[in-house]
Structures are given as C-alpha cells and as structure tokens.
Amino acid sequence: MKTETASFRLVVCTLMVILQMLALRAAGQPWFCRCGSGAVWSGNVVSSHNSQHLLDPYALTHVLHGVALAGLLWLLRGCCTPAWRFALASLLEAAWEILENSPIVIERFRTATISRDYYGDSVINSIGDLGACMAGFLLAERLGLKRSLLLFAIVELLLLFWIRDCLTLNVVMLLSPVEAIRDWQATGLH
Ligand SMILES: [Zn+2]
Questions:
Q1: N or C: which end of the chain has fewer CB within 10 A?
Q2: How far, in Å, from the CA of 158 to the mean position of ligand 1?
Q3: Where are the transmembrane segments (predicted)?
Q4: Domain total in the chain
Q5: What is the pLDDT of residues 57-75, one digit of tens each?
C-alpha cells in the first residue's frame, strides 16, 4: 500500500470514528458497558454485556459487512480508486451504525430478533464494529473474490454453530422474522 493511500485511509478512519462517536452520544448511548468491568471482550450474546464491550461475537458479522462492501464497491472500480472505495465503505458502515442505534431500529431488533434485551450499542462497541468492518474490507482486498467468498461462508457457519446467529440470519430476521428460526435460536443459547 502506498504511504499516501495509507495516510488517506487513516484520516478517513479517524473522521468516521469521530462522526460515529458524536452521533451515538447525541442519541444518548453510553460510552461503555454499564457493568463497569472495562473488559475488552464479552462472549455471552444473551447477557446484558452483549453489544456493550469493544468486541463480542457480533464483531465477526461486521467483518463480513466489510468483506461484502469490498465486493459490492469493487463494481465501481472503473471510476473509484481502492482508497475512495474504502472511504465509501467506512461512510456506509458508520451510517449503518448510527441508524442501528436509532430508536426505530433498536425497537425492531427487540421485537423481531433474539435480541430482546437490546437497547443499542455502547459507543465503544459501535467503534469496535466499525473497526471490524474496515478490517474485513482490507482483508477482502488482499484475499480477492474467491477466497473472500470462502472466508464469508466459513465465518457464517462458525457463527451459526457458536451463537446460532450470523449475518444472513440477522438480515432475514430484521426484514421478515421467521418464528421457527427465533425459537431455534432462543433454545440453544441458555
Ligand atoms: Zn459489561
């Protein structure tokens, strides 16, 4: 990666983190988990610590956001350099994180998915998700199409076995909830 490209990406990352931080604080989200432990990782997705620490299993779905965005924005390669595609992906992810923490989407998650106790992300978790997405984008750039598709499939399967949830189910359950899936998810997590 050229130095100017690397510094451009760094500036973009910093700007997005600031934008997201301001938007989430304005929406009333807390900086950290209310438990106050300061732990970087939270592994239990049905606990109140989920989406509150820097990283949790759902960070992996955000890595896949990055992989998917790298693939979609690659279609713009004729008019858009890799650095600008990275900037666009970061902007889209930051916008999603802000939308995800709006009252209407939080309510949707609570009623339609297994995230019954979901009150939105803490600021630190949301920044972790943005970082995971950017890492996924950079990873996909290096892996190329075939290996990125393989990575996508492996991570989705891993998440299905691990937490009975994944990016695909996330999207399905958010748009058109299936009761049988929700029951299956709920019974396996206790
Ligand atoms: Zn906690």
A1: C
A2: 24
A3: 59-76
A4: 1
A5: 999 999 999 999 999 999 9
Residue 1: per-residue pLDDT: 61
150 occurs within a structural domain: yes
Contact of 54 with 31, CB cutoff 8 Å: no
Q: Write out the DSSP string of 124-147.
A: HHHHHHHHHHHHHHHHHHHHHHHH
Cα(157)–Cα(127) distance, integer angstroms: 25
d(CA 36, ligand 1 centre) in Å: 6
Structural domain of 168: 3-30+54-187
Asked if residue 44 is part of any domain, the answer here is no
In angstroms, the CA 156 to CA 166 distance is 5
CA distance 122 to 136: 21
Distance (angstroms) between ligand 1 centre and the Cα of 12 equals 29
What is the overall mean pLDDT for the chain? 92
In a domain, 48, yes or no: no
Ligand 1 center–CA 128 separation, angstroms: 15
Q: Is residue 45 part of a domain?
A: no
List pLDDT tens digits, range 23-54: 999 999 999 999 999 899 999 888 889 899 99
Bridge partner list, 41? 55
